[in-house]
Design brief:
The protein has 216 residues and is α/β, with parallel strands linked by helices. The protein is built from 8 helices and 6 strands; from the N terminus they run ααβαβααββαβαβα. It has a 4-stranded parallel sheet with strand order 3-2-5-6, with helices on both faces. A two-stranded antiparallel sheet has the order 1-4. β5, α7 and β6 form a beta-alpha-beta unit. α1 crosses α6. The chain is globular, with a radius of gyration of 17 Å. The mean pLDDT is 96.
Length: 216
């Protein structure tokens, strides 16, 4: 049976766009090292079903170091050192709610947090190396589909790139939380102290929706 994500994305995208994406991936994965592994490119949509989505947490593109990218924005396997942005996310989480002793964020995705990058692939050691090639219309369609959801959800937008996507979020039942990016270059300009985790849960609870266990 076709997933709700696939059905909604077919409605949003031009006919044949999925074939264009597959052709793009055939090329780039044959040409060199690309992250995440091809089988995990659409992991965010696979782990967080449309019906279960409560939060959209938007990143820019995958980590470009070996074995870091999992197909989930900001998440890195616990076997690796957390990158600086993820370290700052966990610092803010500890200040806001409590300490989380691991940094693989898969449990967030399993609870309904769509960990979406705007660009779903990246060449090794080339941040934004696949920007403006194929992915943005696809992930914009994901955001538009999320915007259509009839139950309230929270969109968390960190940094200028993510905040520009706010124009796609037009449904007044949803809630937007935005701040500077958790990168070391900007975290002290307003990310630290922004309390996105407790604010998200306060909104969900106000709508009678089970909150996210961010420490799980």
């Amino acid at each position: 049976m076709e997933s709700t994500w696939k059905r909604k994305l077919k409605e949003q995208l031009p006919k044949g766009y999925f074939s264009e994406i597959n052709h793009f991936m055939d090329q780039v994965y044959q040409r060199g090292i690309v992250y995440p592994p091809r089988e995990n490119v659409f992991k965010a949509l696979r782990v967080t079903a449309y019906e279960d989505m409560k939060v959209v947490l938007l990143g820019q593109d995958p980590y470009h170091g070996p074995d870091q990218a999992q197909g989930l924005s900001f998440s890195v396997p616990d076997s690796l050192v957390a990158p600086p942005s993820l370290q700052n996310i966990l610092k803010e989480l500890e200040s806001d709610i409590g300490e989380r002793r691991h940094h693989d964020l898969t449990s967030w995705a399993q609870q309904g947090v769509l960990l979406l990058n705007a660009c779903l692939t990246v060449p090794e050691h080339q941040a934004n190396g696949h920007a403006n090639m194929i992915w943005e219309p696809f992930t914009d369609a994901v955001i538009k589909a999320a915007n259509e959801k009839e139950e309230p959800i929270v969109f968390i937008l960190w940094g200028g790139y993510a905040r520009r996507k706010k124009a796609l979020i037009t449904n007044p039942i949803h809630h937007i939380i935005e701040s500077p990016h958790p990168s070391p270059l900007s975290a002290y300009r307003g990310f630290f102290g922004s309390q996105p985790f407790s604010k998200t849960n306060a909104f969900l609870e106000s709508k009678g929706i089970t909150p996210i266990n961010w420490l799980a």
